[in-house]
Design brief:
The protein is about 35% helix and about 10% strand. The chain has about 150 residues and is of the alpha+beta class. The protein has one domain. It has a 4-stranded antiparallel β-sheet, covered by helices on one side. The relative contact order is 0.14.
């Protein structure tokens, strides 16, 4: 009877444990960064949408002498919002609409732990003092922070 010598070697349990620990440590750093990046791209939807509304409002103001009170009056086809919801242009009296307007988008659904943050634009553009996204600079495409 011949005896075969086992020349194949595998990984030891210690080597496998070390690799698993290293992967776990890397994942602990990478997953939060990835989730923030995904949420930042979703927040960009609000900024793109509202900048389009702002541009359309400026064109409307140039033609009519006041800002539009309804989205239907604007000369733009807006996309359907996927991650945000809005009630349209914030209510104002006709006198106020001659000089100012604002619109708020609120995050809907799961937001990677950031909650239902808001993005507000007005006649001057992004309104950081009225937007709650400024509390989360890691997901804010404008990279603005509240000063405290």
């Amino acid at each position: 009877m011949r005896r075969f010598k086992n020349t194949e070697r595998g990984f030891t349990l210690v080597e496998l444990a070390v690799v698993v620990v290293i992967i776990g440590i890397l994942a602990a750093f990478a997953v939060p960064k990835f989730l923030n990046s995904v949420e930042r791209s979703k927040a960009a939807e609000a900024f793109n949408y509202l900048s389009t509304v702002q541009t359309a409002q400026e064109r409307y103001h140039a033609r009519q002498g006041s800002y539009a009170s309804e989205m239907a009056a604007l000369d733009v086809d807006l996309p359907v919002l996927e991650y945000f919801e809005t009630s349209g242009i914030d209510e104002s009296d006709p006198q106020t609409l001659q000089t100012e307007w604002s619109m708020t988008l609120t995050r809907k659904g799961a937001s990677a732990g950031f909650g239902a943050y808001t993005v507000v634009f007005n006649q001057d553009g992004f309104s950081g003092e009225n937007s709650t996204i400024t509390e989360f600079p890691e997901i804010n495409p404008m990279q603005t922070k509240t000063t405290e």
